[in-house]
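Methods, example record. To illustrate the input and output format used throughout this study, we show the complete record for YcxB family protein. The sequence lines were provided to the predictor; the line carrying structure tokens was produced by it.
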Amino acid sequence: MSYEFTYELTDTQSLRAARIAQRIVLRYHYPIKFHLVGILFQTFIASGAVAIGYILRELIFDDTILPVWQIVISIAIGSIIIWGWQRITAVTMIRNIKHMPSMRGQMNVAVNSHGIKSCRGGKMVKAPWHTIDDFLQTKECVVLLSGGQPISIPKSIIEDEAKFVDDVTAWMKPAK
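The corresponding predicted structure is encoded as:
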């Protein structure tokens, strides 16, 4: 059995595929590094916020002893900075994935027992099943992830969705 699709992703579908790709890449490909960097970053920001509190306390009140409430406020400010920075990083990453050439324009995708072949803008990518990292379904799309690169196929163009999902799952099993 072989499936061939020609389509163009909407902005919403493209954004959802980008979000899925971002989560999978960060969570599965860099789990220790991602969490370690997050913990170190939080520690440094919170420590810096407390240090700034000490410096301001000494400059303003000529006193180096910080009350507990000022330490809590400093850590809260540091946490807000961390949350904002992580949010900016995530949004930037999603935006970059969304604007990748593989996520824009008309796409031709062929899915068969050998793997996936996709063409867009004159560039062809062949991905055998052993290179496919993950297979996910959203409300609107089926997403195949290969090396952090999402290949999103809208469910609206798949004639028999259940058969397609069964075939893809069967083709992926021997490769893993």
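Annotations derived from this record:
The domain at 3-10+101-175 is CATH 2.30.29.30 (PH-domain like).
The chain is about 55% helix and 25% strand.
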